[in-house]
Structures are given as structure tokens and as C-alpha cells.
Amino acid sequence: MAVSPPLPVDLSGIRLDPGKGLAGQLYQALRERILDGRLPAGVRLPASRDLATLLGVGRNTVVRAFDQLYAEGYVEGRVGAGTYVAAVTASAPVPATTPLDVPLTQPLQRLQAHHLPLPREGAPRAFRVGVPAFDLFPFETWARLSARFWRKPSPARLGYGDPAGDWQLRELIAAYLRNGRGLHCDPAQIIVTCGAQQAISLCAQLLVEVGDKVAVENPGYRAAGHAFAVAGAQLVGIAVDGQGLDTDELESADCRMAYVTPSHQYPTGVTLSLARRLALLDWAERREGWIIEDDYDGEYRYNGTPLAPLAALDRNGRVLYVGTFCKIAFPALRLGYLVLPKALAEAFSRRRALDTRHLEIGTQAVMASFIADGHFQRHIRRMRAAARSRRDALLANWPQDIRGCAPLPDVEAGLHLCVRVDSLTREAELIARAAQVGVELNGLSDYWLPGSPLADDQRAGLVLGFAAVPEARIVEATEALRAAWSD
User: What is the set of domains in the chain, with CATH numbers?
Assistant: First the structure.
């Protein structure tokens, strides 16, 4: 009886799971042994038939694994001459707990200091901030429009598109802003973006020089501040009072750019007064500066029609208007727009082309049909009514006489409200107790710039979104808070 020759190397330690792809597992096992030196360069691997017998698998499994190793350069040889491990240079693996000692560039250093926290997981709960009533979105209508577009899309829309966005959608956005918001602009001034944050970031990339001072509301939307800071700006916090951004304080700051949320300040909820709107525009004209207007939830006005944007008053091309569909539809849509002064439109479009070339066409085309067919305006009316009803449910059921917590303010706009608390200690306590009963609250203290001049206790409060869940769940949440906060 003939005796089989010994295998060139010992591979008996390889274990393959029959419930998974065998060839892929064998390829990974051999690759790891080659990279870590257990199979050194020049070693002859077993013949495919011998290795198949050793591992108890079919010869085709071994052949497929060898073919992949050949293709990637881990092994070499010729048919009939055997298979040998190629000379592979690989660094020793770095343990996961050991940080890489790599010098960081200034942009990376700024990014380490200014980044966004991970979003909250799971479906919305009371009182998640920044989330509209997307449980009311007409998904069947959206699916029908999407199927209609993709059933037979025009070949002209399937190539590389305009970096500023789909022209039809830009025309419809311009018409909506003109008829629904009182803002007159040409479609050529509009750039479609991946949500409002990308629009803000684009402004930071093109209008901020390293070392520039940028005025931001304090407290304010920290994600916008992060975008400017990563671009190299020094953030200058400007106080917010009952009339919005303090334009007198802005005058004394050495800035040529200001980021504002005039229709519904985030997070305090106040509206920038007309006198201060005019003062802000005058400041921009005299300083030859820029105003970034973030109208993130301007459609939600509960007494009368929505306010005209600050950009509608601009006669000197100093306001860049940021709008979004995410607060009307749902955040995952990632669709917004930027209305630019005519002098900036071409430059922004060119910069956009270098970032993403252009946005995906399907979402833009479906949103264009959604607007053109009248669904968008109907949905706005429905969302506004739902948000008003959910606001009323919160105001009617909010627990009263909570120690250290001010009464709820009047809420005439937007998707959230802010209530003051008498100390940071009490703020943290209320938030922690709410979390224990499954209720989400944001602390106002998180919205201030580091080193803000106010005392700690003046920065405390609670920020609540009231549109994320139906009225019944709002009532349940307020009852849970009443029990959790009972002293």
C-alpha cells in the first residue's frame, strides 16, 4: 500500500464552519498565516487534493481559495510546479488598544475638537428634538412617484448631473419660496444639498478664511458652529434675548459673518424682531459681511402665515438662505437647499462639483413630482396642524410646579420649546430622572459655547421637541415625568 508523502507545511489547525462559505474561510485562514509569518515566503503549500483531504472539503473549495490568493499576489507558481508563498512585506499588526502615533494636520486637529455626537438610536420618543411627525408622511404616494420615475427614466437624467442640483426641482423650490415664503429668487441661485448641514458646511468652506471671526448665536445650534470652526474660524458667541440676536453686541464684535436662526431661534425659540432684522442687514452691508440664515423649521407658524425670511428683506446680496425638506418630510431624506446671492452661485456650484459631483437624481426627481403634483403643500398643512395639536397636548399636560423649573413659555412657532431651570445641578437631575422612565430631554447647557460669560446657573434649562410622537404618547410621557419628578 502506497504511503502519501508528508505535507510541506502543517495546516491541520485550520477549522472551517460548514454553515458558511468554505472557500472564503480557507482563503482568509491562509492569508492570515502568510501575513503574520506562520507561512513564510518560499514555503510550498500542499497540493489542492492533499489539502482538501486534510480539511475534509471538496477539491474545488481549495482551488477557489488558491485562485483568490494567486489573484492578490499572496502565492505564486506554475501548474505542475507547486504553489509557493510569495514574498509579502507586512507590518506587525497594531493592537486595537494602542493609538497610532501619527502627527495630525491642523484640519484634523480642528475636527477632533469640533465634531457631532452620534444621533440617538431607535424610533423617536417623547421629547426628541429636531424630529417632525414623519409618522404622518405619505409613504405610499412617495413610493408611487418613485416607481413612476424609475419605471422609465429619461436617459438625459441618468448621466452626470448639474452639481447645483436637478433643474426642475430648483425651479419648483424657487416657486415655493416665492409663493409660500415671500422670497423671490431665480432657480440659478439655488443649490440642492444633502440637508441643511451640508449647506452650512459649504458656506464655511467657501467664505471662511483661517482665523476669521464668525458670530454665532449663544446659545445656538452647535453643529453649525462646528462647521465654521473646522474651516478655521474663531467662533464669537453673541447673546440672545427676547428679541433674538443682540445686534448691539454684534456691532462691537470684529466679525464679517454671522450665522442666525431668525424665524425660530434654536434652541430658545424666540423670533428675531423686525428692528433687529433691519439692523442685522445694515451691519452686513456696512461690513461687507455675510449672513447665513438657517430657516430650519420656518414653515411651522401657529398664528397667521409663516414669517417671511430675512433673505426676503435683503436688497444687497448679503444673505445666504438655508432651507431643508427634512423638517417637513423626515431627517433620513437628506434633502435641503441653499439660496445664494447671484454673485456667489457659480463659485458654489463649482465647489460642490469637487465634493460630490452631484446629488443622486432619484430623490430629487421624486421630490420634484411631489411638489408639482400638489402633495408637498398639502403635507405642509397637515404637518403644521399635527405639530400644533401635539404642542397643545404638551402644554395642557405638562406637570406643574416642578421644583426649580420655570413654567412653559408660549409657543407660536417651530417644533420645540425651551424651559428654564434654576441650576445646572437641577437640569442634570431632571434629565436623568426622565431618562429612567424612557423620556428624552436635552439640556440647554449643551447649546452654549465653551467659556460663555454667564454664570453656570444662567445656562440651565430643558429643550423639548413636541412633534415627534402622537398626542397619546405625549400624555403618557408627561404622566411619567410627573411621577419621576415628584419630590
Answer: 22-85 (1.10.10.10), 110-123+137-375 (3.40.640.10), 378-484 (3.90.1150.10)
